[in-house]
Amino acid sequence: MRSPPVTVLFSDSISSVIEKMITNNIGAVIVMSGGNPIGIITEKDIIEKIARIGRDPTKTRAEEIMSSPLISIEADKTIKDALILMRDKKIRRLGVTRKGKLVGIVTERRLLDALASH
Q1: Are 57 and 14 in contact (CB under 8 A)?
Q2: 30-53 pLDDT, tens per residue?
Q3: Distances (CA, A) of 10 to 3, 7, 27, 32, 52
Q4: Is the pLDDT reported for residue 104 higher than 90?
Q5: 18 in a domain, yes or no?
Q6: Among residues 61, 71, 72, 116, which one has the fewest Cβ atoms lying within 10 Å of its Cβ?
Q7: Is residue 1 part of a domain?
């Protein structure tokens, strides 16, 4: 799990979201509003919802292209639980919570790597 997760505000421009993703060498950021996670933006969202249709990333806000709601799992669940949830929801990233509070993000690749190293 990556903790703390890299986050952006719902009102941030997509150009600043892209900059944060590049700076942190990551493929997704969690979108926050009022201290709560409300969605996620992935590289795929940026390609499909910005680049492909020629939308201006300086004039588009994070909330306009995020996937919502953020699907998450409690930190005490197993790797298998997380992979099943990802499969069922057809997603590759999960927010990780502890007592309902966002503490990290986990990717399908990290989970599979963890399984392979056991």
Answers
A1: yes
A2: 999 999 999 999 999 999 999 999
A3: 20, 10, 17, 6, 22
A4: yes
A5: yes
A6: 116
A7: no
